[in-house]
Design a protein that fits this description.
Layout lengths: L9 E5 L6 E5 L2 H6 L1 H6 L21 E8 L2 E6 L2 H19 L3 E2 L4 E8 L8 H9 L6 E9 L2 E6 L2 H15 L6 E9 L3 E9 L6 H10 L6 E3 L6 H7 L4 H7 L13 E3 L9 E13 L3 E10 L3 E5 L4 E12 L2 E14 L4 E8 L16 E5 L12 E4 L5 E3 L4 E8 L5 E6 L4 E6 L3 E2 L6 E2 L4 E4 L10 E8 L2 E2 L14 E2 L2
Parallel strand pairs: 14-18
Antiparallel strand pairs: 1-2, 3-4, 3-6, 5-7, 7-8, 7-10, 9-13, 11-12, 13-16, 15-18, 16-17, 19-20, 19-30, 20-28, 21-27, 22-23, 22-26, 23-24, 24-28, 25-27, 28-29
Bound molecules: zinc ion (ZN).
The site of zinc ion has 6 residues, from loops.
Length: 490
């Protein structure tokens, strides 16, 4: 004889979409092989301890009933009330387990018959066990949220459905700092809660239902971009088209993906459009401007910041309309200056540039024939050279420097003096034209004048001197090749 142990149910949820049913049955193998596991699985515990007497040979014919449950004959009882009590036991246990008002199928039929002892369900507990062994489709007195005539989510009570809708609305009406709701959230759709019997397996938890209504889908699948991925690859490999990928990621430019970017593969399409108008107060900077002034102590072309700019601040009040958390409109209702900006002040230099530094080496300033090196007066001691050529012959700066004279200079006629900034200066006399002016920087080899015969001169020639701290230098020390009658060129 078999001695039954305390045993429970192994639940198995067959998910087949909305038609899924919950089947509850006892698995004998679990009971026999691992008692501790089945004890853990006691969900709807129905203690059954049936001891069959060894003297069962005393056979008594008794009037009773065959029981048909959901069209299936599942045993016999002496009293119909025993079976109905068993059904109540199962319903109560399931209702307690699922915390819901479970409804079981009520298709029960009894047929009078002589009781056969081996098929007798001796007690309500035995009936319960037999009921639990059948495939039970549980339903509950629940509530369905219907949006625009579409059944969107089933909850186990009207109250839960109400809480779900409140949560959806509340999540869009959440306020940030310095935000105030100025009008109640408006829902664009028709929606209602319908109370009706719902298969248990179709129920959603409140959290699930809120998420589902807000996302329009059960799960937002994300994908992390790998090196070499294109948006096309990502879309095609996952059976979606690129437009859907774009729609699901409106915050990103999917034409320039970088490894590590996270893309949503499903689009959020909330069932409810919740529009909320919030008044926001926020500050915005007022950018400073830059003003300029001149400064004679700063070289031309350079500038210095006199004082830094400081951005101002304005406080803005705006009415912002959000639809499903996304800003769709903004109306600025007030702007108030909190702090003035301070202009940045920049000084631009006007000071002439310092003389270009000479190299200390001198170039022959023109071409022509040497007519004098050492003669009485200004040439005494080889302290100048005369080079003759036609009027207008180009004269070039012998070294870099700054022009300190470009004007009539008594016997020199029109003359230019260049200060080379290293103690040296050079003088060019008897010019017919001058191309530079005082203060101008010139570089070695730059054309500065045309040859002429102005001042104390008997014919077109250049009188050229090199001076050191103002003193005329022996010219042949710098141009050792000079010979009267010799030809020179730059
Ligand atoms: Zn001379």
């Amino acid at each position: 004889m078999e001695k039954n142990q305390n045993h429970g149910f192994v639940e198995k949820i067959k998910n087949a979409g909305k038609d899924a049913v919950l089947s509850i049955k006892t698995k004998a193998s679990d009971l026999l092989m691992n008692n501790s596991i089945s004890l853990k699985k006691v969900a709807v515990g129905v203690a059954v301890l049936t001891v069959f007497s060894a003297s069962a040979g005393v056979y008594k014919s008794v009037q009773g009933y065959r029981v048909f449950f959901n069209g299936e004959e599942i045993g016999m009882v002496r009293q119909t009330g025993d079976f109905m009590a068993g059904l109540d036991l199962v319903r109560n246990n399931l209702s307690e387990q699922y915390d819901a008002n479970i409804i079981l199928p009520s298709d029960v039929r009894f047929e009078r018959a002589i009781v056969s002892k081996d098929r007798l369900l001796e007690s309500p507990d035995a009936s319960a066990t037999a009921i639990e062994k059948t495939n039970l489709t549980m339903t509950v007195e629940g509530a369905v949220i219907v949006i625009e005539e579409e059944e969107v989510a089933a909850l186990k009570s009207y109250e839960e459905a109400e809480e779900v809708l409140d949560s959806v609305i509340a999540s869009y009406a959440q306020l940030g700092e310095n935000e105030v709701i100025v009008s109640e959230p408006i829902i664009a759709q028709d929606y209602e809660i319908v109370q009706r019997v719902v298969p248990y397996v179709n129920l959603r938890t409140k959290e699930d239902a809120v998420k589902y209504i807000m996302q329009g889908t059960d799960e937002i699948i994300e994908y992390e971009v790998k090196p070499g991925d294109t948006s096309w690859d990502i879309a095609v490999n996952r059976g979606i088209n690129v437009n859907e990928l774009v729609a699901a990621n409106s915050d990103k430019d999917i034409t320039s993906l970088r490894p590590g970017d996270v893309l949503k593969l499903t689009e959020v399409k909330p069932y409810l459009d919740v529009e909320v108008v919030k008044e926001m107060v926020y500050s915005e900077k007022i950018p400073f401007e830059t003003t300029y002034q001149t400064d004679a102590s700063i070289y031309v072309g350079k500038s210095e910041e006199v004082s830094p700019g400081v951005n101002g601040v304005k406080e803005i009040t705006a009415l912002v309309t959000y639809r499903n958390g996304v800003q769709v409109a903004k109306e600025i209702t007030n702007e108030e200056k909190i702090k003035d900006s301070v202009n940045r002040v920049v000084a631009r230099g006007t000071k002439p540039l310092p003389p270009a530094q000479g190299t200390g080496r001198f170039r022959m300033p023109t071409s022509g024939r040497v007519t004098a090196i050492n003669k009485a007066g200004s040439h005494a001691g080889s302290r100048a050279v005369d080079i003759a050529n036609s009027v207008g012959t180009s004269i070039y700066a012998s070294d870099s420097g700054r022009v300190t004279r470009a004007s009539w200079y008594s016997g020199y006629g029109y003359a230019i003096i260049i200060d080379h900034g290293n103690g040296y200066s050079t003088l060019y006399g008897h010019l017919s034209s001058m191309n530079v002016s005082v203060g101008q920087n010139v570089t070695a080899g730059q054309r500065i004048a045309g040859m002429g015969s102005t001042g104390n001169s008997s014919g077109s020639h250049l009188h050229f001197e090199i001076r050191r701290y103002g003193a005329r230098q022996v010219i042949t020390r710098y141009f050792s090749y000079l010979r009267v009658g010799g030809r020179v060129s730059p």
